Amino acid sequence: MTKTSFLTRSEAVGLAILALIIFVAFPVMLDDFRLNLFGKYLSYAFVAIGLVLCWGAGGILSLGQGVFFGLGGYCMAMFLKLEASTPEATAIQSTPGIPDFMDWNQISALPIWWQPFNSFAFTLIAIFVVPAAFAFVIGYAMFRRRVSGVYFAIITQAIAAIATILIVGQQGYTGGVNGITDLRTLMGWDIRPDGAKTVLYFVNAILLFGCLVVAMAIRKSKFGRVLVAMRDAEDRVRFSGYDVASFKIFIFCVGAMMAAVGGAMFTLQVGFMSPTIVGIVPSIEMVIFCAVGGRHSLMGAVYGALLVNWAKTTFSESFPELWLFGLGALFIAVVMAFPNGLAGLFDDYIKPRLRGWRQTPATAPQPAE
Amino acid sequence: MADQKKVPISPISRRAILAGGAALGASLFLPKGLRAQDFPTDQINTTGLAVTDDTVQVGILHSISGTMSISETGSVQAEKLAIEQINAQGGVLGRKIETIQEDGASDWPTFAEKARKLLVNDKVASVMGCWTSASRKAVLPVFEQHNGMLYYPTFYEGLEESPNVIYTGQEATQQIIAGLDWVAREKGAESFYLLGSDYIWPRTSNKIARKHIEDKLGGKVVGEEYYPLGHTQFNSVINKIRLKKPDVIYAIVVGGSNVAFYKQLKAAGIDMTEEAPLLLTISVTEDEIRGIGGENIEGAYACMKYFQSLENENNQEFVAAFKEMWGDDMVIGDVTQAAYLGPWLWKAAVEKAGSFDVDKVREASPGIELASAPEGYVKIHENHHLWSKTRVGHALADGQYEVVFETADLVEPDPFPEGYQ
């Protein structure tokens, strides 16, 4: 195996450009409101990066990433809600000191499994561990039985549906359809003013780059190569002595954790969490971000999440009655004309024109999907 | 007062004119021939809202795509009608209302995003919007943070009283108690079977209903059940109902589930026109009946504040104007009418305050009266809800309700009812 440095030159340039856009261009060019919106878009980029690893590299198409996004978001929301539900702030309730939606549902004591979320340290750990554990259980059950491809996609979609029904049904414990709303402070720091939103934007951006670097490292590692090999010829890898299921479970868990970090940042920036972000439709939208960006390109995923969400906002502001058609046309155009998304477009048309660009071995043959 | 002939709904009800000068003097809706130049922009807008010498911008924030669009479209239409009528009369403080419409897309984070856009970027003077409680809960912190004013049209569960919201629909006790009293008094009902979709509004409403039935009416609740939103299999509960033989089925099923529920009731041989058991609902307006089919719900009773068939001049003019603007096949439900009140209540508050400033509008709002409301006279309570009458309608096969009862007086809104918690 040839020795490769951690970043090729083109990747380093790509990262630098992305950093320039996210850390400099957006904060300079956008007002507070727009910057906060872009922060929300970037929280979806975490999911898209995880999907590039699972789907683009590993060939595991999950239509249930919203569940992990939601788990991360709900963990954060539970912490924030408990902080907001002081006995003083909830004095008008029958039981002061518990979240308002519990009081409305005749629950008179904080459920045991809510109590650890009084601790911020526990919450931070839970944001990683809960989705990872859940992904492990799903992965173990599916991949050990060699469930893959469309069957896996359908099962994850079913899980997204089940998660929504569960959250909506258990409204005394989860806030139901309304979700967990009216979140105010994080350890005493008010997350609502514009200044706080700007800080959260940068925290979000730094975490996103952390995720990007981790994802790149995984792709570059021997493990990443095994993943690609598995995607393209699973049986050959298995016959070569690799434990395919373990590799799949691992990458699925990584994708879940990344989604969960995005979910937690989403909660902080938007100020609430609700089951509408957990279900089938948002989960599929997350796959679309990844597809538009290019499912083989980690940075493409970030651009995809930005572009699709920006288009969604812009179209819907300009043409409130017709915007869905515009968005639909965008997806169709991308799939028809650029099956490898923005990244493919870049590779095919722009890169050849750039003089002195060193050829990078991006991804080999396309998976047969 | 000269050119009011073309306006479908006069801001002064004809009765008020007949009542003579004294009544007119007291009316808030006296067209004072408000001219923009009498109200310099820098004096009536000290907080940088989108108000110019001739225009004022108002936001409309409903779902026009996604699952809620069927319900919310009527509200958008009613709000646009009201705004067009207000503009035809010269606008608010001499300024024409321009609307900025945003699509909440049945998605709560989108609602929060669009609310922020309307308040922060567009600096609208007020927002007419939201339908579900979830969307209202999502935008509430945004309105409180940026000090906006939301006119919220839906009947809802109560338990809320925001300084930044005027609730133009009924809160739960207003809608529930009068109906239960009526059914106990007129129909001698003693046993009730409560059921509903599983979320905050039906649960809170049934909680209030149960307390009232058990504590005040001395009746009994023989069953209480909830089904997920979108549920379509009601056979098991229908069997239980036949077994328990309640006098009243109290149904708060919402959305698409309604279609399945009423069709299955009918298919199971429960003929609602026989009133054994009698069906009383608080969730089926004329809009929902279009989906259910009039023949499937004929004979049921609904309890709310407005029915399209209300016989008063305000309402006849409103229905005619609505159909003229949006088409003859339109039906108007309770929430649509409540949405229509929003722009009028806002206009009245602005003109009473002599300012578009949100703080002054809020201060001026309690006590605002609207004699021209299609549902009849309403008044804003200190708690930002409306005093309104509650009515019981009897469903006819043509999809309309025949009003069989209305409260003698306005019912006081009580979003945090003592003894019902």
How far apart the termini of chain B lie comes to 49 Å
* Model regions low in confidence, pLDDT < 50 over at least 5 residues of chain B: 1-30
- The CATH class name of the largest domain in chain B reads Alpha Beta
Strand content of chain A: under 5%
Our count of domains of chain A comes out at: 1
Characterize the main sheet of chain B: 7 strands, mixed
**CA-based shape of chain B:** elongated
- Rg from Cα of chain B: 21 Å
- Which range best describes the helical content of chain A: under 10%, 10-25%, 25-40%, 40-55%, 55-70% or over 70%? 55-70%
CATH topology descriptor of the largest domain in chain B: Rossmann fold
Number of strands of chain B: 15
**Straight-line distance between termini of chain A:** 28 Å
The CATH homologous superfamily of the largest domain in chain B is called Response regulator
Alpha plus pi helix count of chain A? 15
Protein name (chain B): Urea ABC transporter substrate-binding protein
InterPro entries (chain B): ABC_urea-bd_UrtA, Leu_Ile_Val-bd, Peripla_BP_I, TAT_signal
Organism (chain B): Paracoccus onchidii
Pfam families (chain B): Peripla_BP_5
A few lines on this structure:
The complex is a heterodimer of chains A (369) and B (421). A two-stranded antiparallel ribbon of chain A has the order 1-2.
Describe the structure.
The complex is a heterodimer of chains A (369) and B (421). Chain A is mostly helical. Chain A has one domain (9-353). Chain A is 68% helix and 1% strand. Chain A has a two-stranded antiparallel ribbon. In chain A, a hairpin with a 2-residue loop joins β1 and β2. In chain A, α2 (32-57) packs antiparallel against α11 (244-270). Chain A is globular, with a radius of gyration of 21 Å. The model of chain A is unreliable at 361-369 (pLDDT under 50). Chain B has 421 residues and is of the alpha/beta class. Chain B folds into two domains: 14-170 and 310-388, Rossmann fold (3-Layer(aba) Sandwich); 172-304 and 392-406, Rossmann fold (3-Layer(aba) Sandwich), CATH 3.40.50.2300. Chain B is built from 15 helices and 15 strands. Chain B has helices at residues 14-18, 21-26, 41-44, 69-88, 108-121, 133-146, 172-187, 200-216, 235-244, 257-267, 286-292, 294-297, 313-326, 334-353, 358-364; strands at residues 55-62, 96-103, 127-129, 150-152, 165-167, 191-197, 220-227, 248-252, 278-281, 301-304, 369-370, 378-380, 386-387, 391-395, 401-406. Chain B has a seven-stranded mixed beta sheet, with helices on both faces. The longest helix of chain B is centred in the N-terminal third of the chain and has 20 residues, at 69-88. Chain B is elongated and about 70 Å long. In chain B, 55% of the residues are buried. The chains are: A mainly alpha (369), B alpha/beta (421). Chains A and B meet through α2, α4, α6 and α13 of A and β2, α5, α6 and α8 of B. Chain B: InterPro entries: ABC_urea-bd_UrtA (IPR017777), Leu_Ile_Val-bd (IPR000709), Peripla_BP_I (IPR028082), TAT_signal (IPR006311). Chain B: Pfam families: Peripla_BP_5. Chain B: It comes from Paracoccus onchidii. Chain B: This is Urea ABC transporter substrate-binding protein.
